[in-house]
Every structure is written in structure tokens, then in C-alpha cells.
Specification:
Blueprint lengths: L7 E4 L24 H10 L3 E7 L10 H15 L3 E5 L22 H10 L7 E4 L2 H9 L3 E5 L16 E3 L2 H4 L4
Parallel strand pairs: 1-2, 1-4, 2-3, 4-5, 5-6
The structure holds zinc ion.
């Protein structure tokens, strides 16, 4: 019996918790959705961890630093109450050498999900990955969890490649109704 394990709702950041824009480089550019905090509270109340899984190649591209991102992460945690934020700072064509690599943590790879699973001892069978892009859905499928495509960012109209999520909803408010 794995009764003690808790599931998680893994969340992409941009287009899910904050407004999508090409690169969010500072706290001042973060526009958190007005419903975000309430949704996170409900996710936690229903017994799920809420864990952000985000590609942040702006670091590898030299647009902002890891320190800048830490400030953004602290702000997001304070404003929404998410349990943790896992990020990939890499990009294979980055200009900052330290972060220029083909890694296994950048979505659509599932490295960040795998790491969070171990850190929090998560019941993956009952977990979800929610995001607005094909890479979110593919990462969730690689981790063998249920996937949810949200229209609050890129959504179905702007998919980089065809994917088949388990669910499609307008935004996080609709998604949490199935928990
Ligand atoms: Zn990475």
C-alpha cells in the first residue's frame, strides 16, 4: 500500500501561473494570473504537492542570471504558495558557456520531473503535468503521468508539434476541478 505517498500537480510557469511573454527576465516583468494563488491553495487542500517545472533558457542565452531567476522564484513562491520550483537553465545553443549543453532536464525531457519525484517521494500514478506547450505534454508523458494542456498561454492554437494530452482546459481554474 502506497497510502502515504502524495501525488503532485506539476505546473509549467509561463502561460499557466503567469502571463506568457517571450522572455520574463525580472520580477517586474512577472504578471501573475489573479487566480493563481487560489488555485494553488485548492491543489494543496486536495492533497497534492504543487511543483513548478520550468525551462529557463534565458539564463543560457545571457538574458538574465540565475540570481535573477532566484528572485523571481522567491516572488512566485511568496505570491502563490507553490511548494517548489524546478528549472532548467540550459540550452544547446546558449551563449553562456556554463549553461550551454544538451541536458536531460529541459522539457520535453523529463529530468526535472524525475528529480522532483525523488525529492518529494511523489505518487506519480496519481500526478498531473499541466502546461501550455507541446514540450510540457511530452515531458509529462515521458514521466508516465497524466497531462493537461491549458489555453491560458500558447495552447492548442500554437502547438510546436501535434500532441495528445489527456485533458484540455481553458486555464488552471478549470483544471483543478478534476482533482
Ligand atoms: Zn537542463
Amino acid at each position: 500500500m502506497e497510502g502515504d505517498k502524495r501525488p503532485a500537480v506539476f505546473l509549467d510557469r509561463d502561460g499557466v501561473l503567469i502571463q506568457e511573454r517571450s522572455y520574463v527576465c525580472s520580477v517586474a516583468e512577472m504578471c501573475i494570473f489573479p487566480f493563481a494563488e487560489e488555485c494553488i491553495t485548492k491543489i494543496k487542500k486536495k492533497g497534492y504537492y504543487s511543483i513548478v517545472i520550468t525551462n529557463q533558457s534565458g539564463i543560457a542565452r545571457g538574458l538574465f542570471s540565475e540570481y535573477d531567476l532566484q528572485k523571481m522564484n522567491e516572488y512566485l513562491i511568496r505570491k502563490t504558495g507553490v511548494d517548489a520550483i524546478y528549472y532548467c537553465p540550459h540550452h544547446p545553443n546558449g551563449i553562456v558557456e556554463k549553461y550551454r549543453k544538451k541536458c536531460s532536464c529541459r522539457k520535453p525531457q523529463s529530468g526535472l520531473l524525475d528529480r522532483a519525484c525523488v525529492d518529494f517521494d511523489i505518487d506519480m500514478k496519481r500526478s498531473y503535468m499541466a502546461g501550455d506547450r507541446a514540450s510540457d505534454i511530452l515531458a509529462g508523458q515521458r514521466a508516465c503521468i497524466k497531462t493537461v494542456l491549458l489555453e491560458s498561454g500558447y495552447g492548442t492554437a500554437h502547438l510546436e508539434e501535434p500532441v495528445t494530452p489527456d485533458f484540455i482546459f481553458n486555464d488552471l481554474r478549470d483544471m483543478i476541478k478534476i482533482l
